[in-house]
């Protein structure tokens, strides 16, 4: 994917690695000799001069583009060219142009973003006066002035401020995701440098650590006036922070641009590819091997034919001048057939894939159900290359604060001098529940009061109004305190009171987690919060429930302790028999001889909680597999007190050892590494800045939208892409293999069956739009059913809809179609005659018949494959057929012949051939014989072995018919038609559905029925995957 705000600076890779950083104030000449990075941010890749050469170089890094360039070069060689060069150059130029426009557009927005950041203004002390400078012109060693609510331009050493003792207050949400204020303080020796004249004379030198990504640590020293003053993180203002509640401050630039800690934490954006992309690369290599094999077979045939037969016809079929033997003729024939047969992998495949992905991205952007009205924030697909992988996610790694919770602290209760405020009691002295409480306390007398704040206990306000000294002292200290001290440091202090605040869960979080769990998606929470808070949130969001047998807590401080705790957890899980479904226990269902791992042995009623210091040991090379095996066997995993780096390491561990798609979701800069490491990164646009969003592949404002992103958009994208690829390979093998069969009847001379215009237009005009429409709009079930039956998500996780097996099935179907499309017309034409008694067989009439049969067969096939009909599908399918006939008749017309007599020689052939009933009967016979086995197979599959989506579609059809039966039909009302319904007439569905009192089938009931009907293949396949943990019986989602 592209570098979404990757925020790179000018490359510093040429500089030797720094051992220490030296920066002298007000001395640019001294600092420049170290060649430190400037403060300029550069995320763009091109400029006007470099765009064309660099972009073309990048595009030809793709194997497919290089392959088609090689074919184009072959076609320019007269001795081997069997097709005109434009059959390859037109689609190649189209692909390169479309990709170049897309890359140029992306880079334009990167330039725009760079300019916006780099052109921000900053006050820099130059030659004794403050001057306005752009951020990109700020250098290491400069002294800059910040004012209240301004962003910090670079990593600064705080010199002085408007506050007493050199204090200043900053907000670090962009860095660590925390919205509370933090205090920074200048060292005493510089805190008095408040006026410009004294700062202009300041020549202190900072010697410190080299650039690194540690946000909470800094070590260095200031050398000034022959003295050394130690520096710590408390003296630093980092880029990305915002100055708050401080009128002004001055700082010395220590790190700039890519060397700042914010940029160091952003990491390098990894190029993300989907599993389908990787599979396609493998399949293209296989197809190329198959193409070479076909070329070799036909070349050998050509050599034999020329040696045995061709030599007898040298008088009127002489060899070319360069050909001096049958062997060399076969060699040239090989390259000719490589050109002819290259359409098994047409370049239009890659264009179509990108167009479909772009369409899916727009559907996400336009989804009103993922639009947050409160924040006026839509969902955004920030990349177009990962959509189908959203339908294959097995592991979700989530931050807690701001992702699962609102990151808004609500004041609920407090205790002052031992008295509790916040609860409300009735007249009998019983605690009143929320629904029984009176009206909240009226704060309208205070014009500064927050109207959204609700508090139910009036006694606290009464204590304030009466002037209670303890209450006033409590609130005074609460409002002024900016430091939290740990309990062990609270010596010789008086405890005035305590507060109870709540960071509430976001709306819909428990329901989302429950639904994703039913879809066999495992959710791990990775948080920097303490263990108690993380576990409480786990219970609140239903990750931890009463069904959990035991929660294993790993808190060891040494390697041995952590290893022992993990070992005991695995032993407990192995020793306890747990029902895994159908009344069998683990031991009954899986014999001990086949227990290859703990993952196969447990049913998943456990949870694991591990602390950051323990996780550091668990992630070591000799223990990571033990930790992974234990964690994957648990229903829920919570990692607390973890660093940003540990979050990324956990994600990388699962990616490395599990054949599963991972998704990371977070909202703070401390989640950026995790988001970039996962297969898919999702940013929450919340309270904690935009760093997570900038680094993400997808973004929205609330966690609950994740269920719709995965179960609706992700599942549909995966389904559509798989159906598109299956059909695309089918239609191209059906098209191309006809040339192979024809080779045996034309002396292996590399003569094409179709004319060159049909070959050029087949993939870019005649069959492109119908398959695009299916790839963009197709559905198997409506969005409501996708959410209602989360088990529908599992085929994507198991990669069932497009894999090597499905690929071989679709190419076998294509080869079968090519055999019929070629040999049926060939057999008919061998004996058939025209209406006037003349011989029907001639090359061009045969070509027209075969081409027409092929176009009609593949059009009918896509009609069968389409599961959701729209007006666009109808228009594209039948419109493409109409365009084919229009172009066919035009190319065989008198007008084109008169204008281009050398190009369009066969005047009136199409009109004459298609006027013969025999030709139409041949086309009809070919179509029926090609399509009938497909219809029969799908009918039998739906009758004998329906999958879950078939069952859901049928239940929907039955519900619709019952609803129509019980109400008056509305005139003019139409509904989408689904081609799958026509074959779903098997007995048993209706009885099951009709027998239920409630027409809404639960996920458990429907999944169970599908299994009884022969669809237990999902569970069978899941058991075969050694790396997949057992899962508990599915439960219907209530609510």
Automatic annotation (TrEMBL):
Entry-linked InterPro entries: ATPase_P-typ_P_site, ATPase_P-typ_TM_dom_sf, ATPase_P-typ_transduc_dom_A_sf, HAD-like_sf, HAD_sf, P-type_ATPase_IV, P-type_ATPase_N, P_typ_ATPase
User: Would you kindly state one Gene Ontology biological process term found in this protein's UniProt entry?
Assistant: phospholipid translocation
Residues the record lists as binding ATP: 399-401, 527-529, 641, 647, 670-671
Return one GO MF term: ATP binding
Q: Locations of Basic and acidic residues compositional bias? A: 15-27
Q: Where does this protein have compositionally biased stretches of type Basic residues?
A: 960-976
Q: Which UniProt keywords apply?
A: ATP-binding, Lipid transport, Magnesium, Membrane, Metal-binding, Nucleotide-binding, Translocase, Transmembrane, Transmembrane helix, Transport
Does this entry carry the keyword Ligase?
no
- PANTHER family cross-referenced by the UniProt entry: PHOSPHOLIPID-TRANSPORTING ATPASE ID, PROBABLE PHOSPHOLIPID-TRANSPORTING ATPASE
The entry assigns this protein to a family as follows:
Belongs to the cation transport ATPase (P-type) (TC 3.A.3) family. Type IV subfamily.
- Name the chain's protein: Phospholipid-transporting ATPase
Organism of origin is Puma concolor (Mountain lion)
């Amino acid at each position: 994917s592209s570098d979404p705000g990757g925020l790179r600076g000018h490359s510093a890779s040429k500089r030797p690695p720094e051992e220490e950083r030296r920066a002298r104030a007000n001395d640019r000449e001294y600092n420049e000799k170290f060649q430190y990075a400037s403060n300029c941010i550069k995320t763009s890749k091109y400029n006007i001069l470099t765009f064309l050469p660099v972009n073309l170089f990048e595009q030809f890094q793709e194997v497919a583009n290089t392959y088609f360039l090689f074919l184009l070069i072959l076609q320019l060689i007269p001795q081997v060219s069997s097709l005109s060069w434009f059959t390859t150059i037109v689609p190649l130029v189209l692909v390169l142009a479309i990709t170049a426009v897309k890359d140029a557009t992306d880079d334009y927005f990167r330039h725009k973003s760079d300019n916006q950041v780099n052109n921000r203004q900053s006050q820099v002390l130059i030659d004794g006066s403050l001057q306005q400078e752009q951020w990109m012109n700020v250098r290491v060693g400069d002294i800059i002035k910040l004012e209240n609510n301004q962003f910090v331009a670079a990593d600064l050493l705080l010199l002085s401020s408007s506050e007493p003792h050199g204090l200043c207050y900053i907000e670090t949400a962009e860095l660590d995701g925390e919205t509370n204020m933090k205090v920074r303080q200048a060292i005493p020796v510089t805190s008095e440098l408040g006026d410009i004249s004294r700062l202009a004379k300041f020549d202190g030198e900072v010697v410190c650590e080299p650039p690194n990504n540690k946000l909470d640590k800094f070590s260095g020293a200031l050398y000034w006036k022959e003295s050394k003053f130690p520096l710590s993180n408390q003296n630093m203002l980092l880029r990305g922070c915002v100055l708050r509640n401080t009128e002004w401050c001055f700082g010395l630039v220590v790190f700039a641009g890519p060397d700042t800690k914010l940029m160091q934490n952003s990491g390098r954006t990894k190029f993300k590819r989907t599993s389908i992309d990787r599979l396609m690369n493998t399949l293209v290599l296989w197809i190329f091997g198959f193409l070479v094999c076909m070329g070799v077979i036909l070349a050998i045939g050509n050599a034999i034919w020329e040696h045995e037969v061709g030599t007898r016809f040298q008088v009127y079929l002489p060899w070319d001048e360069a050909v001096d033997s049958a062997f060399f003729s076969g060699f040239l024939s090989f390259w000719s057939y490589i050109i002819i047969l290259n359409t098994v992998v047409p370049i239009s495949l890659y264009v179509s894939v990108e167009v479909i992905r772009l369409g899916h991205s727009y559907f996400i952007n336009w989804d009103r159900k993922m639009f947050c009205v409160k924040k006026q924030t839509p969902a955004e697909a920030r990349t177009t290359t990962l959509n189908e992988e959203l339908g294959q996610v097995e592991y979700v790694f989530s931050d807690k604060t701001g992702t699962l919770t609102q990151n808004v602290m609500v004041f609920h209760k407090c205790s002052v001098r031992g008295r509790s405020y916040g609860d409300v009691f009735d007249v009998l002295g019983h605690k009143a529940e929320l629904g029984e409480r009176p009206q909240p306390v009226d704060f309208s007398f205070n014009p500064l009061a927050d109207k959204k704040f609700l508090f139910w206990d009036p006694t606290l306000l009464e204590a304030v109004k009466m002037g209670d000294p303890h209450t006033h002292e409590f609130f005074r200290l609460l409002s002024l305190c900016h430091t939290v001290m740990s309990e062990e440091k609270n010596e010789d202090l008086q405890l005035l009171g305590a507060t109870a605040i709540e960071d509430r869960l976001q709306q819909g979080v428990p329901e989302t987690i429950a639904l994703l769990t039913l879809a066999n998606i495992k959710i791990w929470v990775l948080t920097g919060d303490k263990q108690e808070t993380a576990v409480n949130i786990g219970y609140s969001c239903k990750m931890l429930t009463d069904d959990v047998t035991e929660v294993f807590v790993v808190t060891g401080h040494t390697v041995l302790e952590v290893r022992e705790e993990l070992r005991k957890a695995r032993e407990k899980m192995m020793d306890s028999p747990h029902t895994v479904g159908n009344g069998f226990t683990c031991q009954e269902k899986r014999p001990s001889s086949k227990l290859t791992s703990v993952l196969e042995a447990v049913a998943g009623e456990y949870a694991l909680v591990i602390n950051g210091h323990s996780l550091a040991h668990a992630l070591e090379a000799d223990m990571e597999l033990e930790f992974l095996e234990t964690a994957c066997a648990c229903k829920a995993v919570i990692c607390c007190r973890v660093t940003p780096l540990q979050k990324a390491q956990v994600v990388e561990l699962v990616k490395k050892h599990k054949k599963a798609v991972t998704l990371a979701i977070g909202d703070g800069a401390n989640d950026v590494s995790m988001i970039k490491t996962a297969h898919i990164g999702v940013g929450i646009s919340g309270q904690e800045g935009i760093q997570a969003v900038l680094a993400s592949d997808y973004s929205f404002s609330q966690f609950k939208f994740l269920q719709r992103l995965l179960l609706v958009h992700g599942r549909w994208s995966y389904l559509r892409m798989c159906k598109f690829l299956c059909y695309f390979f089918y239609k191209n093998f059906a098209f191309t293999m006809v040339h192979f069969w024809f080779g045996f009847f034309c002396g292996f001379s590399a003569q094409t069956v179709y004319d060159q215009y049909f070959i050029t237009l087949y993939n870019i005009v005649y069959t492109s739009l119908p398959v695009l429409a299916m790839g963009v709009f197709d559905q198997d079930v409506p969005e409501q059913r996708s959410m209602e039956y989360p088990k529908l998500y599992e085929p994507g996780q198991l990669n069932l809809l497009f894999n090597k097996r499905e690929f071989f099935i679709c190419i076998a179907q294509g080869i079968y179609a090519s055999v019929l499309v070629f040999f049926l017309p060939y057999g008919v034409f061998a004996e058939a005659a025209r209406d006037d008694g003349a011989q029907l067989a001639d090359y061009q009439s045969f070509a027209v018949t075969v081409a027409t049969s092929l176009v009609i067969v593949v059009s009918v096939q896509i009609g069968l494959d389409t599961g959701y009909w729209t007006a666009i599908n109808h228009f594209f399918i039948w419109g493409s057929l109409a365009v084919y006939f229009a172009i066919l008749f035009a190319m065989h017309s008198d007008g084109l012949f008169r204008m281009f007599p050398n190009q369009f020689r066969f005047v009136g052939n199409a009109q004459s051939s298609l006027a013969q009933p025999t030709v139409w009967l041949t086309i009809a016979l070919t179509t029926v014989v090609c399509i009938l086995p497909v219809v029969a197979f799908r009918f039998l599959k739906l009758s004998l072995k329906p999958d879950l989506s078939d069952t859901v579609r049928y239940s929907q059809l039955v519900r619709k018919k019952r609803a129509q039966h019980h109400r008056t039909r509305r005139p003019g009302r139409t509904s989408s038609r689904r081609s799958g319904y026509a074959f779903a007439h098997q007995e048993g569905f209706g009885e099951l559905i009709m027998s239920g009192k409630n027409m809404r089938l639960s996920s458990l009931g429907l999944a169970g029925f599908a299994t009884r009907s022969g669809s237990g293949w999902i569970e069978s396949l899941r058991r075969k995957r050694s790396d997949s943990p057992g899962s508990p019986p599915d439960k219907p989602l209530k609510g």
